[in-house]
Amino acid sequence: MNGPIRRIATGLFGAMMCLLLAVTWFQVVRADDLKNDPRNPRPALTERGKERGLIVSSDGTALARSVTVEGSRGFERSYPEGEVFAHVVGYSSFILGDNSLESSRSSVLRSRRDVTISDLLAALLGTDLRPKNVEVTINAQLQQVAFDALGAHRGAVVVLDPVTGAVLASVSKPSFDPELLVGPDTAANWEALLTDPENPLSDRATREIYAPGSTFKTVVAATAVDTGIATPAASFGDPVEFQLPGSLATIGNAWGGPCNDGVTTDLLQAFTRSCNTTFAALAIQVGAQPIGATVGALGWNQSLPYEWTIPNAAWLTDQLATDRAALGQSGIGERDVRATPLHMAMIAAAVANGGQVMAPYLVERLFDADGAEVESTTPEQLGRAMSQTTAATMSLMMERVVTEGTGRAGALPGVRVAGKTGTATGSNGFTNFWFIGFAPVERPTIAIAVLVEGSSATGPGGSGGVIAAPISAQIMRAWLGMSP
Amino acid sequence: MTRRAEWASIVAGAVLASFGVTLVNFADGGGVDAQTGVTFLVFIIAFGGLSLAVHFWAPRASPLLLPVVVGITAIGFIQVYSLSLLRAGLQRWWLLIGAGLAVLVIRLLSPKDTTLLRRYRYLILAVSIALLLLPNLPTDWALPLRGLELNGSRLWVTLDLGFTTIGFQPAELAKLGMVVFLAAYLADHMRALREAHRQIGPIRFPEPRQLVPLLGAWGVSLFILVGQRDLGASLLLFASFVLLMYAATGASGYLVAGGLLTLTGGIAAYAAFDHVQRRLVAWIDPFGHFADEGYQIAQGLFALGSGSLAGAGPGLGRPDLIPNSATDFIFAAVGEELGFAGSVASIALYTLAIAVGLGIAFRSRDTFRKLLAAGLTFVLAVQVFLIVGGILRLVPLTGITLPFMSYGGSALVGNLVLVALLLRISHEEAT
Asked: Number of helices (H) and strands (E), helices first, in chain B?
C-alpha cells in the first residue's frame, strides 16, 4: 500500500506546488496590475481611510476634520467651513493629492500608523503616533466677514496683525467647496472647476500677482521721506501731464487735471489725492535703488517664507535704474510692478508697525491628540522698511487719505483709519481696484489689503476708493468690534 | 523534535496569535488589551491541553503535528479577528470546545486503541449518514433540533436550547465518520479488492462487483450536491474516497473511474443547477463578469495583488470587501493583510501537515490504521487544494472552508478531532 500512498503523496505535493506557483503569479508577477485595476477600490480606500488631524481657526472653529465613515473603520475628510476657507485649508484628496495647509502640514496631520511592526515598537516606547492638529492664526468670524464683504466680486482680502505678522483672514473669491474634491465625484468636479472661466481654484490672496497701482505710492512716499528727499510739505511743480523723460509718453491724473492749482502742490496733497503727475516725478527723483531697498525689506524680489510658494513680488531695480521713463511709470505701481495682496497688506502692516516688517505666518501652533501644545510660531522680523519717524509720518499721510482724500469710503466713525487706494491696469482691459490700510492709527491692531478684479460686473469706471475701500471698512469695523 | 520543542512551538503559536491580535488593535487605534491576553490564554489552554493529553495518553505520538496546526490556527485566527471581533470571540470558544473534544477522543481511545473504531464501523457509518441527513430536518417543526437553509445550501442544523440557539454543520463530523468507515471497510475487503481486477492496457480495472463501494460514495456525494447543494463537501468526500480506494488497492483504474464519475456528475450538475453554471462562468472569466458571478473571485484576486509581498498589515487591508472573507475566502484575506509572505507560509504549513499525516500512514503496519491516517490526510489535503485552488483559479470555486483557518465552529471542531485521530495512530504505530 505504501506504493500508491507514495504516488498520491507526490501528486499532493505537486498540487501544493501548483498553489505556490499560482499565488506567486497573483501576488508577485501580476500584483501591480491587480492592485492598480480601476475596479479595485483598495488603494483609494486605504489612503482615504486614514485619520488626519484637525485644522482649527484661532477662535476654535473646525476647518478640516476626519469623520468616521459609517459601517467601516475608515475616515473621510470633512471641511465644515467649505468655500470660505478653501484656499487656506486646501484639500486632502485621494485622487488629486493634498493642497494648501493640507499639503504644507501633511506630515503633522497624517497619522503615522503605517508600518505595523515599527508602530508597535513605537507604542511600546511611548511614542504618540496619532495625528497632530494645526491651529491657524485666522479668526473664523473675521474670515466670514471678509468673505461676505467681497460679495459677488472676484478678488481677495488679506488681513494681518501688524505687530506679529499673523494672518487674521485670507479670502479669495470666487471659491469652491473642498468637499467636492474628496468625494466620489472628484474627477468630474475637478474638471468642472478647472474649466470654470472664473477660475475658482486660483488663490488670489497669496498666489496671484497684480499691478498694485496707486497703493504703491505708499512705498515711493515712504522711501522719499526716509531718504530725506522729501517731507510731506515738500513742494512740487504741478503740471496737467507729466512728460516721461526720453519718451513722448505722458502721465496724467485720473481726473485729467492738475494735482492742485496747476502751479505747485506738496507731497501730502499729492498722496491724499493720489496724483500720478507728482509721483511719477518723485519716483524718478528718488531713484530705483532706494525704492528697491524699501521693497526688498518688505520681502519683494525674493521668495517670501510662507506655508506655500508665493510668487515673487516684482520691482525690477536694475532695469529701472537705467530707464527713467519706466521708473516714472513704475512709481505709480504700473508697468512691471507686481505683488500679491499679501505683499500689499504687508506694506500697510509695516507702516502700522513703526516700519518694522514682520514675516507673515498662518499657523499659530500645533497640538497633539490630547490638546497639548507641540510647537508654536514665534513672530519673526523680516526687515525694516523705514524708520520709525518715517512710519509715523506715513501714518498721518495715510490717515489724511481716509479723512479727506480718495479713501474716504474706508473711514469708520470714532476710529482713526489710515489707508491708500489704488486703481490699476488689470487683465482684458479691465481695471483692478485696491485698498490697503490699517487701524486704529494710534495703536494699530489690523492691517489689510483688499483687491477687487475689474470685470463686466464691476462696470466701467470706478476706483479703489469707491469699490475696495468700503469692503475694508466693513472688515475693520467687524475686527475692532470683536477685539477687546 | 521532542515534546519540549512541541511545547515551545505551542507557546510561540500563542504568542503569534496574540501578537497579531495586538497589531490589529493597533491598526484600529488600540493596543495591548484584554483580547491580547484572552487570545494567548485560549491558545495555551487549547493546544497545551491537547499536548498534555498526548503526554499522558499518546506519549509516543508524532511531535511534529501539533506545532504545524498551532501555526496555521494562529494565522487564521489573526485574520478572523481582523475581520470581526465578534466572530473571533466565538472562534475562541470553538477552539476550546474542539480541543476538548480532541482530548476526549485521545482519552477514549487510550485503553484499547484506534482499532476500536474499526469494530464499530457500521455504527459509525449509520451515525455519519444520520448526521449528513440532519440539515434536511424540517426548518419549522416542534422539536428543538431543526434544519436551516443558508445562502441556498442546506448545511446547517440548529439546536434550540431555550435560552440560546446553537448552529453547526454536522457534515464536518460526518466526513470523519465516513473516512473511518471506508478505512475499516477497505481493510476488511483488502484481499478481495486487490486481487479482483482486470488489466486493460496499463490500467488495472477492478471487477464491476468491487465498484459497489465507489458507487456508494458517489451516490452519497451526489446526495450532498443535490439534497444540500454543497458542491464543495460533495467533491471533497468523493475525491477523498477515490484517493483512499487507490491507496488501498493500487489500482489506477479507481482514479480513472473516479475521474469519469466526477466529470459525469459535474456535467449533470452543470446542466441541472444554475449555481454550478455560475461557478464555472466565474472560474473561466471572473473579470468579464465582475458585476455578478465573478465578483467574489475578482475581489479575492484584487486582495492578493494589493497584499503584494509584505501585505497591508493585520487590520490595515480591506479584506472585508471580499464576500465571505472570514470563511471560504480567508486565504485571500491572509494574502492581503500578511502578503505573499503570509500566503507562502500558510501553504508551506499545510504541506508540512500533509507530509506529517502521510508519514504517519506510511509508517503504520496495521492496514486499518494506515488507511485511516491516509484517508484523514487526504481529506485535509483535498480541502486545502479545493478552496485555495478555487481562489487562485486553478479549479472552479467550490465553496468550502480552509481547515483551521476559516471562521466556523463545526469545521474547527471536526479538524481538531481529525488531528487527535492522527496523533493516536502515530502513537500506536510508534516503535
From this structure: 17, 5
Between A19, A33, A34, which is nearest B392 by CB?
Answer: A19
The residue type at B319: P
The pLDDT mean for chain A works out to 90
In sequence order, which residues have a C-beta less than 8 Å from that of residue A233 and are 6 or more positions away?
A266, A267, A268
What is d(CA B354, CA B368) in angstroms, rounded to the nearest whole number?
19
Residue A253 pLDDT exceeds 60: yes
Given CB atoms, is B308 within the 8 Å cutoff of chain A?
yes
Beta strand extents in A27-132 (DSSP E only): 55-56, 62-68, 75-78, 92-93, 97-98
CA–CA gap between residue A331 and residue A283 (Å, rounded): 5
**Which stretch of DSSP H or E encloses residue A252?**
strand A250-252
Amino acid symbol at B55: H
- Which positions in chain A touch B315 (Cβ < 8 Å)? 73, 116
Q: Tell me if the bond preceding A460 is cis, omega within 30° of 0.
A: no
In chain A, what residues touch B307 (CB-CB under 8 Å)?
Answer: 27, 31
| Residue pLDDT, tens place only, A423-474 | 998 877 789 999 999 999 999 999 999 999 988 777 677 888 899 999 999 9
Q: Which of A214, A395, A455, A463 is the catalytic position?
A: A214
**pLDDT tens readout for residues A30-79:** 888 888 777 887 766 665 567 888 999 999 999 999 887 766 666 888 99
Q: Specify whether A214 is catalytic.
A: yes
Reported ipTM: the value is 0.92
A60: left (phi over 0), alpha (psi -120 to 50) or beta: left
Strand partners, B131: none
CB contact under 8 A, B367 and A1: yes
Give the contacts of B393 (CB within 8 A, at least 6 positions apart).
Answer: A22, B283, B286, B297, B301
Residue found by looking up cell 513605537 in the block: A122
Does any CB of chain B come closer than 8 Å to the CB of residue A12? yes
Q: Which long-range contacts (CB under 8 A, 24 or more apart) does A237-242 make?
A: A237/A263, A237/A264, A237/A281, A238/A262, A238/A263, A238/A264, A238/A265, A238/A277, A238/A278, A239/A277, A240/A277, A241/A277, A242/A276, A242/A277, A242/A278, A242/A280, A242/A281, A242/A328
- CA–CA distance, B69 with B384 (Å, rounded to integer): 13
Contact criterion met (CB below 8 Å) for B91 and B77: yes
- Are the beta carbons of B385 and A15 separated by less than 8 Å? yes
Task: State which H helix or E strand residue B110 sits in.
Answer: none
- A224 neighbors A230 (Cβ within 8 angstroms): yes
Find the CB nearest A116 among B26, B343, B374. B26
- pLDDT at residue B344 in the model: 96
Q: Is the pTM of this model over 0.80?
A: no
Least CB–CB distance from A34: residue in B247, B302, B339: B302
Whether B305 sits inside 8 A of A9 (CB atoms) is no
CA A339, CA A359: separation in Å to the nearest integer? 16
- Backbone phi, then psi, for A169, in 5-degree steps? -160, 145
Using the Cβ of A69 and the Cβ atoms of chain B, whether some distance falls under 8 Å is answered with: no
Q: Is A23 close to B313, i.e. CB distance below 8 A?
A: no
CB contact under 8 A, B314 and A116: yes
Q: Is A234 exposed, middle or buried (0-12, 13-18, 19+ CB in 10 A)?
A: middle
Dist. CA A63–CA A77, nearest whole Å? 10
Encode burial over B132-155: b for 16+ CB neighbours within 10 A, e otherwise: bbbbebeeeeeeeebbbeeeebbb
Q: What is the DSSP letter of A26?
A: I
Closest to A158 in 3D by CA, of A178, A135, A138: A138
